[in-house]
Amino acid sequence: MLSAYLPLLRTPGAPRFVAGSALARLGSAMFGVAVVAMVSARRESYGLAGGVSAAGLVVLAITAAVVGRLIDRRGQRRIALPLVGWTVLWGSTLVALSVVEAPAWTLFVAYALAAIVANTGTMSRARWSHLLTDRPDRLHTAMSFEQVIDELSFVFGPVLAVVLSTQVFPEAGFVAAGLCYVVGMVVFLGARSTEPPVDRDAQPDTTLALRRPGIVLLGLVMFMTGTIFGSNEVVTIAVAEHLGRKDLAGPVLALFALGSAGAGLVYGARTVRLSLPTALVAGTLGMVVLEAPVLLAGDFVSLSLVMLVAGVATAPTLITSMNLAQRLVPAGQVNEALSVVITGLIVGVAAGSAAGGRVAEAYTPQAGYWVAVVAGALAVVLAVLGRRTLRTP
User: Fold this and answer.
1) Cα 153–Cα 156–Cα 162 angle in degrees, nearest 5
2) Helix or strand or coil: residue 294?
3) How far is CA 145 from the centre of its chain?
4) Contacts of 93 (CB under 8 A, 6+ apart)
5) Taken in order 38, 344, 152, 71, is the CA torsion positive or negative?
6) Higher-confidence residue: 208 or 9?
7) Exposed, middle or buried by CB within 10 Å (0-12, 13-18, 19+), for 358?
8) What is the C-alpha separation between 283 and 72, in angstroms, rounded?
9) b or e along 238-256 (b: 16 or more beta carbons within 10 Å of the residue's beta carbon)?
10) Which residue of 110, 133, 354, 367 has the lowest C-beta tally within 10 Å?
11) Sorting pLDDT into bands at 50, 70 and 90, what band is 203?
12) Per-residue confidence (pLDDT) for residue 225, from 0 to 100
């Protein structure tokens, strides 16, 4: 199976940008948890910590498509490198404000500004799209490989952030996240030979990616997928606390990510004979069918098994969505389109966290999983209704 991925790493210049991208994404996966751990430890308030984290998430969602559009028009290095410096500036400011226990509002401002970043995942996928433009079979494998990197980042990143913040000093997790992100981005952007070229002579396309047929639909499907992720995170913590072992929530959620990563590896190594719109329907259907048994999981053993299996359908759905997003727009809008899709996922995570927590508090912790199941069902409906729109040349 792994032999299917070796040709990717033999692509000239690929090992360097893959290594940089993986390190940068590890840092990105650490930021949210690191901020919560840092602020809650210094201020003894999970409410404030969650608010600061949410502020950064909102700014990231709002600016992602704009930054993606600038990258498409000006080039990855030209836009992303200054933003790395911007992140260093405001990230360092946030750490200093935390240490001196500055007024709470300053934390919101600093983290919100630090969240204006170039998304490494979308830029990395755009590079594969450029390098493998005439090899759609190999591009499918590359998108699967990218998804596996994302999943593994979210398996190890949050754990590393929590360990550093709790065992070293409150800001240690955030500092480590920043170092991983900055070093990774510098290595990634230094791989100049694989950067997609910008056609300086081409007439700028003023049509927003959002207005391309199918992009909004994909964003909505990703919103529902993100809702599954967000609600699973919060509800699993609530269920674990209800069962008397809140410390086991992290390992249970890691199994969900591992299930997704494993499925991504298998999916990428195989030739998919379904059309992309049909594959999206199959993926979303798999998400709701495999997620539904979690409503009946009443102990840690069954919950762990169900979450491991539930993660299996998420990677194929995400991979298919990324492939579709790239094919629905001209080559000069790939970063922007991917950013729109990723934004839907990010906003979905936030919405799922809020909805799952509210249901878990209003009824029972286990009832909170209904949010994920309903979101999966809505994703199926969207995928089915949008099959005609998602057909690509």
Assistant:
1) 120
2) helix
3) 14
4) 110, 114
5) negative
6) 9
7) middle
8) 29
9) bbbeeeeeeebbbebbbbb
10) 133
11) very low
12) 93
Q: What amino acid is encoded at 5 in this protein?
A: Y
Using one digit for the tens of pLDDT, what is the confidence trace for 232-265? 877 887 888 788 877 777 788 888 888 888 888 7
Contact assessment for residue 321 and residue 341, using Cβ atoms and an 8 Å cutoff: yes
Predicted local confidence at residue 177, as pLDDT: 92
Which tokens in the block code for residue 200? 């300086």
| Mean pLDDT computed over every residue of the chain | 84
What is the rounded average pLDDT of the residues 65-83?
87
**Which of 3-17, 75-89, 264-278, 317-331 bottoms out in mean pLDDT, i.e. has the lowest?**
264-278
Q: For the purposes of burial, counting CB atoms within 10 Å of the CB of 386, is it exposed (0-12), middle (13-18) or buried (19 or more)?
A: buried
Q: Is 49 exposed, middle or buried (0-12, 13-18, 19+ CB in 10 A)?
A: buried
The residue behind tokens 């949010």 is 371
What whole-number distance in Å separates Cα of residue 233 and Cα of residue 241?
Answer: 13
Cut 0.85: pTM above it: no
Give the torsion sign (CA, 210, 136, 223, 123). negative
Whats the size of the chain, residue-wise? 393
Cβ–Cβ under 8 Å, residues 318 and 195: no
Q: Token pair of 333, please?
A: 């809008």
Handedness of CA 264, 369, 354, 252 (dihedral sign): negative
The distance of Cα 2 from the centroid of its chain, to the nearest Å, equals: 23
At position 368, the amino acid (one-letter code) is G
Rounded-to-integer distance, Cα 302 and Cα 222, Å: 27
